[in-house]
Design goal:
The complex is a heterodimer of chains A (217) and B (84). Chain A is mainly alpha-helical. Chain A is built from 10 helices and no strands. Chain A is elongated and about 65 Å long. Classes of the chains: A mainly alpha (217), B mainly alpha (84). Chains A and B meet through helix 3, helix 4, helix 6, helix 7 and helix 8 of A and helix 1, helix 2, helix 4, helix 5 and helix 6 of B.
Chain lengths: 217, 84
């Protein structure tokens, strides 16, 4: 288990809880955590469980594995509570543990050959030009993603990526890990991470294109 | 420099990791190729879309995402000492 003491600040975990949830008192949580206080740990599960489930779901691409990974994560966090240091935010510490739990699940299930993403990569003519015109997308990401149905389609597209591509894209472009950290987490070389990330982005562009076109939905 | 060459390097370009002379060739191609400019814009939107999904209310909050049975299961593990 890798417990992060440094903050790779995950985009989805840096903001204060939304939706009217109370702002957790980080210092009190940290004290209670290190003291092994059961009520503190229960508060952590209630406060961060949903967000960690979202993280593990993004990495694993399905609900069942994501739930198992969150349970694994809290068990790991409970066992490692004495190692928590005040140098780290509780949310960041839990995020790192959840990412590791999800990656362990991912490794344990990686048995079957992955689907190729070649069909989702851009086509070029023999002379190296685009095989056809590239139709522009009319709206910015922010404008398009303001719609819940588009966000759901983007999530669905990310889930369609094969595990080895999705996990790199999620860690690098969504969860905020840099190339070196991602390489270490996945046991890859930094160059392999870059290549997979690039191909994953190209494939995701193809997969979300229908949702980004004018008049879609 | 062809469109294929440009698209092969586009993630490195966005990361600012191309050598200056390659960046210059890349920019020169972009200047005259609408398809590659459009493609680059789409890739930027694609990357941003992933980030926006993660910071959307339903993901960033997460308070509605925790199924009651999972919450109960984890709390039971902790209370019974099976997590230790």
């Amino acid at each position: 288990m890798v417990i992060g003491s440094r903050a790779s600040i995950p985009a989805a975990m840096t903001d204060q809880p939304a939706g009217g949830a109370p702002t957790p008192d980080e210092a009190a949580l940290a004290r209670g955590l290190r003291a092994g206080d059961e009520a503190t740990f229960e508060a952590l599960v209630r406060t961060y469980g949903g967000r960690l489930l979202t993280v593990t779901r993004r990495i694993l691409g399905n609900d069942e594995d994501a739930r198992d990974a969150v349970q694994d994560a809290f068990v790991s966090a409970y066992r490692a509570r004495a190692q928590f240091t005040a140098a780290s935010r509780v949310s960041t510490w839990l995020h790192r543990i959840a990412v590791n739990a999800a990656l362990m699940r991912l490794r344990s299930r990686r048995r079957k050959p992955e689907e190729s993403i070649d069909d989702w990569l851009p086509d070029f003519s023999a002379d190296g030009h685009h095989a056809g015109p590239v139709a522009s997308w009319p709206e910015s990401a922010e404008a398009r993603l303001a719609r819940r149905e588009v966000r759901d389609q983007v999530r669905g597209a990310i889930d369609r990526l094969p595990d080895s591509y999705r996990v790199v894209l999620v860690l690098r472009d969504i969860e905020g890990f840099d190339t070196a950290e991602t390489a270490k987490l996945l046991g890859l070389t930094p160059n392999a991470v870059k290549i997979r990330l690039h191909r994953a982005r190209l494939a995701l562009r193809t997969l979300i294109a229908p949702a980004m076109q004018e008049g879609a939905l | 420099v062809t469109c294929r060459d440009v698209i092969a390097l586009v993630s490195d370009y966005l990361a600012g990791e191309l050598p200056p002379e390659v960046t210059a060739a890349f920019d020169a191609h972009l200047h005259r190729c609408l398809n590659c400019r459009t493609f680059l814009a789409q890739l930027r939107i694609t990357i941003e879309a992933g980030r926006l999904v993660a910071t959307s209310p339903e993901d960033a909050d997460g308070t509605g995402a925790m199924p009651a049975e999972l919450l109960a299961s984890i709390l039971a593990l902790l209370r019974t000492g099976n997590a230790t």
